[in-house]
Every structure is written in structure tokens, then in C-alpha cells.
Design brief:
Layout: H1 23-39
Length: about 50
């Protein structure tokens, strides 16, 4: 499975994957996510200590 893209305003059940029709939008959103994720710190695992 890869990255999927849905228009939730028109398809709330996520039944129509638009990623193949809009690969540029998938790339744009993936890059925005990567930039955001790079700013996050790794979680600290405190269980079992």
C-alpha cells in the first residue's frame, strides 16, 4: 500500500483514492510532513523502568 490521498469534503468514507490522479499533491504533502516530523523529538520510553 502506498500513500493515499482523499478529498474528505467530498468523500468522508475514504472510498476514492486520488493519489494516482494528483501525484504532485502527494509529493507536496509528503514533504510538508517530513519537514514537520524532522522537528519532533523522539518519544521517551518510560515504561518498564
Amino acid at each position: 500500500m502506498g500513500t493515499r490521498l482523499y478529498n474528505l469534503a467530498d468523500d468522508v468514507t475514504e472510498s476514492r483514492d486520488l493519489s494516482s490522479e494528483h501525484p504532485e499533491k502527494v509529493q507536496e504533502l509528503t514533504e510538508i510532513y517530513r519537514q514537520w516530523r524532522a522537528q519532533m523529538i523522539d518519544p521517551v520510553n518510560t515504561r518498564g523502568k
